[in-house]
Each structure stands twice: as C-alpha cells, then as structure tokens.
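Much of the work behind modern protein science is quiet bookkeeping, done one molecule at a time. The protein below has been through that process, and both of its lines are reproduced in full.


***
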Amino acid sequence: MAEDPAPAAFTAWMAAETAAYTAIHQLHQRTQGGRLGIPDARIEQIARLRKEADVHFAGLWGALGATAQPSVATAPPVQRERRRRPAFELRSRALAEPIENRAG
C-alpha cells in the first residue's frame, strides 16, 4: 500500500471537520433542534469552522496532485417528443363491459 503523501494535511483536515461537526452538534443540542433562538455569533463561528475545513480539504486535494476543479462535461439537451395525455387515450378506447355482466 502506498504511503500517504501528506499525513499532516490529512490530520489537519480531519481536526477541522471534527471541530465544525462538534460545533454544529452542540448548537443543535443547545437550541433543542432549532426550536430556541440561535445567536448570530454561533452561526458565524460555524461558518468560519466550515470554511477552515474546506481550506484544509482543498490543500489536501492539491497535495494529492488532483486538479482544483473537476472538468464538467455538459450533456446535450434531451429532445422530448410531444406526448399524448392519458385522458385522451382512455376516451378513445371502447368502454369495457361491467364486471357484473361478464360471464365467469
């Protein structure tokens, strides 16, 4: 198995992810699932922690030799043919014989 090229970067990313997750969990617990008011400072703190985790992940991604943004291939638009409405199909068919009148 190949040696991890940046164990320190991976550890820093995991620590940042853990800090962000813990802050979100604590906020959820303290606000009883969002039923109580959430202070703006706590939301800003979580946003900073998430941003820090994203920066660490981007650094780790770059250390692995990957491109910053994957190339996205766009598919050609799907040509859809005009469909008939089911109600028109049902009206154009002959009426079925009621179950009570069918020979069994």
